[in-house]
Amino acid sequence: MPRQKSGNFDQKQYVNDYIKTKIVYRRMNFNNSKPEDMQMVEWIDAQPEGVSNYLKRLVLDDMSMNKSRQ
After folding, report:
1. CA distance 43 to 64
2. Using DSSP, how many helices (H) and how many strands (E) does the chain show?
3. What is the model's pLDDT at position 26?
4. What's the pLDDT score for residue 35?
5. Dihedral angle at the C-alpha atoms of 61, 64, 69, 70, nearest 10 degrees?
6. Using N-to-C axis directions, what is the helix angle for 35-45 and 51-69, rounded to 10°?
7. 18-56: string of b/e by CB count within 10 Å (b at 16+)?
8. Residue 56: helix, strand or coil by DSSP?
């Protein structure tokens, strides 16, 4: 059951506005007919830290390695 509005505060509108202003989405596609793509999906899904945290850590590690090369 949806949460009732309390006074002038609209939780749903607040969450929608927060997502629009604070969250950036990036999409990555995998082809399930390619075995190497499915191996990557299985590997990513198996990471205990979660998909987003795992990918963010990979990007940060790559950024650090590239800074040291410059």
Report:
1. 23
2. 3, 0
3. 94
4. 98
5. 140
6. 100
7. eeeeeeeeeeeeeeeeeeeeeeeeeeeeeeeeeeeebee
8. helix
Burial of 66 (0-12, 13-18, 19+ CB in 10 A): exposed
φ and ψ of 6, to 5 deg: -115, 105
Contact assessment for residue 37 and residue 28, using Cβ atoms and an 8 Å cutoff: no
From 44, 69, 46, select the one nearest 56 (Cα to Cα).
44
Specify whether the CB–CB gap between 38 and 32 falls below 8 A. Answer: yes
Taking only the tens place, the pLDDT of each residue in 14-23 is 999 999 999 9
- To the question of pTM greater than 0.85 for the whole model, the response is no
